Amino acid sequence: DTEVTQTPKHLVMGMTNKKSLKCEQHMGHRAMYWYKQKAKKPPELMFVYSYEKLSINESVPSRFSPECPNSSLLNLHLHALQPEDSALYLCASSQGEGGEQYFGPGTRLTVT
Amino acid sequence: GQNIDQPTEMTATEGAIVQINCTYQTSGFNGLFWYQQHAGEAPTFLSYNVLDGLEEKGRFSSFLSRSKGYSYLLLKELQMKDSASYLCAVKGDYKLSFGAGTTVTVRA
Question: What is the mean predicted confidence (pLDDT) over A26-36?
């Protein structure tokens, strides 16, 4: 299994809502990542988890809250988002922090 | 800081060869990756270079010169399905940083 899965594929939420994005991999990878990608822009790193511990937070606003319940799962909890947070949210995983990253299909988020 | 430059767009004919250049200035270097991304889809891994030289993988090859801060991705025998954005990404001291991507359009 060389797949990273993400749910949901699409999400529309209001600025007062609370929602969560989910990511799962069964490749035995020990590093997992959240990226944000705006249209026609490259992915921007948000968070890195290594061995289930948060190792990098790229100064992301607290309205985004990551969680790694176990080595296969990564969540991103969303609360009080702004319309400018609308983007494609990509999850990725790699064997270790330095290896090639495998990306999930992404969740397209629209904040209204 | 990180500075990764690649051309915005390239157009080529089916069956031809296209070379996408990438120059970088980063704090630390721990490898250079190329990813392909079709519109609305996730990036997929194409190649990885950490030592100088050419890595060949089927129709795709990637070259690295660390002293020049330069890499290229060579796409041979272009097919229509190769129309996509190609992202150069550099692993610096602690994270992977992406260039803005090169949109390649393959024409019949």
Answer: 95
How many Å from the N-terminal Cα to the C-terminal Cα in chain B? 41
Does A41 contact chain B (CB < 8 Å)? yes
State how far the alpha carbon of B27 is from the alpha carbons of A15, A42, B96, in Å: 37, 19, 11
Interface probe, candidates A10, A27, A103, chain B, greatest B C-beta count within 10 A: A103
CA distance A56 to chain B (A): 9
For chain B, say whether A102 makes contact (Cβ under 8 Å). yes
- pLDDT at B1 (0 to 100): 62
Position B92 confidence tier, pLDDT thresholds 50, 70, 90: confident
Question: What's the maximum distance between 2 C-alpha atoms anywhere in chain B?
Answer: 42
Measured between beta carbons, the chain B residues lying within 8 angstroms of A102 are 45
Tens digits of per-residue pLDDT, A54-70? 999 999 999 999 999 99
